[in-house]
Amino acid sequence: MANQQDFRTKVIPTWCPSCGNFGMMTALTQAYADLGLEPHQIVMTFDIGCGANGANWYKLYSFHSLHGRSLPVALAVKMVNHELTVVASSGDGGGYGEGGNHMLHAGRRNIDVTYIIHNNERYSLTTGQYSPTTKTGQVTKTSPDGLVEHPINGLQLALVSGATFIARGYADEIVHLRELYKKAIKHQGFSVVEVLQPCDIFYDEKKIRQAYKSRIYKLDKSWPTKNKSIAYNKAAESGKYPIGIFYQEQRPSYTKQLSQIKKKPLVKQSLGRINIAPFVEEFK
Questions:
Q1: What is the mean pLDDT of the segment spanning 83-111?
Q2: pTM for this one?
Q3: Contact 121, 131 (CB under 8 A)
Q4: How does strand 165-170 pair with strand 241-248?
Q5: CATH number of 4-281, picked from 3.40.50.150, 3.40.50.970, 3.40.50.1820, 3.30.460.10
């Protein structure tokens, strides 16, 4: 049985020393091991950004895609071989900005993929420009007079798109985050896990962690995870950061409903001889 280290390459990550990505990686590799998964059973897809460099440091099948495009690749992998565990990773810029449309349609399709969004409220790899989740008034390289735009609420976006598992974690709460990851991966459907990730380069390290520590609290076991409207309102809470599972529903996943792959994955099916002439004729 694989252990946590079996999901790590020998390459030392180049993340900044106190980056939240370390906690996220620890929680995820622990989750894989706890679930009894093996490296060859997992595919991770990445976009561009600090977290996306994890494509070099997770020891499993991985694909480093374009900015905001980790989901299309993940969906394609799941369609071809739905027996694989597929996890897509993106930043808040790629997830809610360039790739926002992909998230919307993945939600309505309810494809069985876990989507992890690293939310540090910046485009950090490109040196700190404001992102879709940067708070109004923040001074950045691209908003020197203070940001005038309103930030996107990623959890609300996931809710209205139709995602069937929606959670928020915090990178420094590794044990709690590990359990969220495990539940998200086990869920049959589209799972979105937004992770609050402190960036100590474009925020003051002590202040950002103190801010999170003073505002974060965990949703208790009595939280009504089946009520979408309550989850939507909770996601909008101002001044505090609730973490935990906001919403979960059981709805048939996309791949479970396709007759073409009910018996076995496409990758295990023989194509045989297919006459495409009638199809070509339609385009003449």
A1: 95
A2: 0.94
A3: yes
A4: antiparallel
A5: 3.40.50.970
